Amino acid sequence: MTIRGLGGFLFLLGHEIRLAFRGRKDKQRGARLALLAFLGLVLFAVGWMAASLLSKFEPSLTTPVLLATSAGIAFVATLMLGHALIAATDAVYTRGDLDLLLSSPFSPWTVMTVRALGVAVQVATTYVVMISGLLVSLAIMGAWKWLAIGPALIGLALLMTGGGLLVAMMLFATIGPRATRVAAQVIGAFVGASIFLAFQSQQLLPRSERSDAARAMFERISRIDTPADSPLFFPARAFLGDTNALLVWSIGSLLIFALAAFWFSRRFTSDAAAILALGPKRRAFRDRTRPFRGGVMASLVRKEWRLIARDPVLLSQILLQLIYMIPLIFVLYRTSSDGGEMHAGMFGVMAGAVAAISASLAASLAWLTVSAEDAPDLVAAAPIERRMLERGKLVAAVAPVMVLAGVAAAGIARLDPTAALWTIAGATAASISAGYVGVWHQEPGARKDFRRRPKASWTAQLGQSFVTIAWAGATGLAASGLAALAIIPGVIALGVLLALGESRRKPA
Amino acid sequence: MNAVTAVNAPALALRGLAKSFGDKRAVASLDLDVRAGELYALLGPNGAGKTTTLRMVAGLLQPDAGEIRIFGVDARVDPKGAKRITAWLPDEPMLYDKLTAWEYLEFVAGLWGVPTKVAKARAQELLELLDLWQHKDECCEGFSRGMKQKAALAGALIHEPKLLMLDEPLTGLDAAIARQVKDLLQQRVRDGATIILTTHILEVAERMAHRIGIIADGALVAEGTLGELQTRAGVGMSLEDVFLQLTANTRRAEPTA
Predict the structure, then answer these.
(1) Surface-to-core class of residue B254, CB atoms within 10 Å of its CB (0-12 exposed, 13-18 middle, 19+ buried)
(2) Which sign, positive or negative, has the C-alpha torsion A10, A16, A20, A22?
(3) CA angle A486–A426–A345, rounded 5-degree value
(4) Is A476 exposed, middle or buried (0-12, 13-18, 19+ CB in 10 A)?
(5) DSSP B10
(6) How far is A304 from chain B (nearest CA, A)?
(7) Which end of chain B has a smaller Cβ tally under 10 Å, C or N?
(8) Beta-carbon contacts of residue A426 (< 8 Å; ≥ 6 apart)
(9) Are A240 and A69 in contact (CB under 8 A)?
(10) CB atoms within 10 A of CB A94
């Protein structure tokens, strides 16, 4: 097969796409297929419901509709931009195959162009899959005009991938290769969550002003008299099936992406060499030689914390999971400033959210301490009971989470001590449960694959999701004053945990 | 606290040790004795079962059948007791990128329950001996392959194991570091430790080992001193000739690409 021309280009692109979507464990193929089938059904069901609504109307190109569509596009665009930025830096930093590819007879420009295209395919596929149920349903119902959403969404993905590549290049040029990776992740996560955070920011206003602010915003929006043919509404018109707009939008997006990919490829052809030459940083801690401290459990915990604390990329990935806790802080801050009155249901939402976020963090940390153990043979060869080893790793994973949950509970305690108690109890149960599922169904992985960890063990991923939802529900109900009802999700959580414990992996 | 070990027991006694991975038989009813205080070289072609055998001895794999006794301690009955007196060093150094050499040794000493004062003194001694003292506060990720191997070796020795098992300990090391490692191993043997090493570098086995075992298809096909093996194979045969002769069948059976 030729490595020149289109054939070689497509060969490399196929390689990129295969790597981007490949699962890690073939032996779990059955479970994965079952899960995919289930997700497919869910997507189709949701898509069918949405299509049933949409198919009753022809897409209308009036200002209010265009305005609402534009808002939706802006929301998706921020998610895509965040996704693209992270995927772009991952493509350069994480995969570790640049040495091989750049030493092959492919031109460096081709390698980097294909990599950029791989990012676009990854971003576009993610979102197209999400709306696939809707598109299929619309096609079945014969609502052809609405099908423009598909190509328009691909155009948006190309545009945002182009944006992601440009931001990555700017970061590289301004802060250098080492800092770019962490910065890109942080920026990507915040951009992705920006619309959500913007909507929640009104929680910062005093309650009395909040409804006024919302009313004022709606009034401002209703007063917008931008004509429907304004260029501002161009993307919305494309999404709503205006043929000319769709054509220009698609071609324009493709051109902008091609331009960004061209710049990215040219620039990163030389920058990639700089990244490859980086190697591990020779990092010394002078004057830090301390007396030895012993204790098996303490040694394990200390080791895990040091490894996490010294890895800024990892640390940023972990802490970014807390982004969605920011609105809770808004609510707590404002309620506390307003004089401390909050609806019981709101305590339930907050307590449930704290439990869910704690479980998610604990699951992440447990993956790092258990599955991503760098020297599994070393710890396995040590004269320690397996249970003690697991307990040590679990403590290392759960303890920092409990500190954060404690801070959240302290905030809630200022308003309602009972709800705070339920919060800390729920967060503890959820974190320990999620951690144990990670211990029981561990799959060896590498720390650099932290973001791809859900693909490592579907059982762990599904189990942790079930247990988290159940504990979050129980915590929320209890904190809302419905402790008796909370028993139901609590028992479900324990049952799932028990089943997962019984099906735990036995050592080789 | 050291496990109670039998005074006159062999350092390692394997009886009928077997392990399969699915249909593939890795170790087939292996009997092996390693005497206390000797350096034993385990040779064999790729896939012969050397590493699997040592991983079972180290307690990393459960045998399908057979018995493992380390200085008289039944490793299947008392795995903790057996692990306490052994150390395992695989071909890829088991290190943590973000820990310094000092912190790594602190961690390993903690795992083996070495008292902190003793551990600190040993860590300093080992790092100085292996020329790593000036790098003790550097993260291992910046180390060269040789430095990593030396740091891992220091970790394996920090609890002063009675039985040290090394899988290809000299692979990828430059001549100077290889010499340092060999000297250290020989010193440990002189001090009374027992060492089992696997290697593809036959010269290492020739020069260092008291006895050599050749394993093929998961079974021991020959064992003895270098002289005994040469005598058995014929006059004028080198260890390489002996090895190639004894493992010819296995290599013929290996699939070709």
Answers:
(1) exposed
(2) positive
(3) 55
(4) buried
(5) -
(6) 10
(7) C
(8) A351, A352, A354, A355, A471, A472, A474, A475, A476, A478, A479
(9) yes
(10) 18
Give the integer Cα–Cα distance in Å for B34 and B12: 5
Residue A384 with chain B: CB contacts under 8 Å: 80, 111
The Cα–Cα gap between B151 and A192 comes to 43
Dmax (CA) for chain B in angstroms is 54
Q: Flag whether pLDDT at A182 surpasses 50.
A: yes
Please judge whether B116 and A292 are an interchain contact, meaning their C-beta atoms are less than 8 angstroms apart.
yes
Question: Tokens 């600190």 belong to which residue?
Answer: B120
Residue with tokens 């058995």: B232
Cα A48 to chain centroid, rounded: 26
CB B184 within 8 A of CB B153: yes
A288 interfacial to chain B (CB closer than 8 Å) = yes
| Cβ–Cβ under 8 Å, residues A195 and A74 | yes
Gap between the Cα atoms of A128 and A146, Å rounded? 14
DSSP state of A252: H
Question: C-alpha B191: how far from its chain's center?
Answer: 17
The predicted-structure confidence for B173-211, as pLDDT tens digits, reads as follows 888 888 888 999 999 999 999 999 998 888 888 888 999
Query: Measured between CB atoms, which of B60, B81, B96 is closest to A307?
Result: B96
Query: B114 CA to chain A: closest CA distance, Å?
Result: 8
d(CA A37, CA A448): 29
Amino acid identity of B228? E
A86 sits in which H/E element: helix A63-93
Residue A506 per-residue DSSP state:
P
| Chain B residue at shortest CA distance from A373 | B96
Measured over the CA atoms of residue B115, residue B116, residue B117 and residue B122, the dihedral's sign is: positive
Query: What pairs with residue B113 in β-bridges?
Result: none
Task: Report pLDDT digits (tens) over B104-115.
Answer: 999 999 888 899
CA of A497 vs chain B CAs: smallest distance (Å): 27
User: Angle, nearest 10°, between helix axes A296-309 and A386-413?
Assistant: 60
Measure Cα distances from A295 to A300, A302, A382, B114 in Å: 9, 10, 13, 9
d(CA A126, CA A132): 10
What is the CB-side half-sphere exposure of residue B178 using CA atoms within 13 A?
12
Cα separation, A501 vs B151, whole angstroms: 37
Token code pair at residue A56 = 């009753």
CA B106 to CA B127: how far, in whole Å?
12
Q: How many CB pairs under 8 A join A and B?
A: 123
Whether B94 sits inside 8 A of A307 (CB atoms) is no
Residue whose tokens read 């057996």: B82
Could you tell me if B100 and B138 are in contact, meaning their C-beta atoms sit under 8 angstroms apart? yes
For residues B159 and B107, what is the distance between their CA atoms, to the nearest angstrom?
12
**Cβ pair B87, B161 in contact under 8 A:** yes
Question: How many whole angstroms separate alpha carbon B162 and alpha carbon B112?
Answer: 13
- Residues of chain B contacting residue A300, judged by C-beta atoms under 8 Å apart: 110-111
Using pLDDT thresholds of 50, 70 and 90, give the confidence band for residue B84.
very high
Q: What φ, ψ does residue B42 adopt, rounded to 5°? A: -105, 115
Residue A148 CA to its chain's centroid (Å): 27
Average pLDDT in chain B: 87
Whole-model pTM: value is: 0.74
Distance in angstroms (rounded) separating the CA atoms of residues B185 and B162: 12
Helix (H), strand (E) at residue B24 = strand B24-34
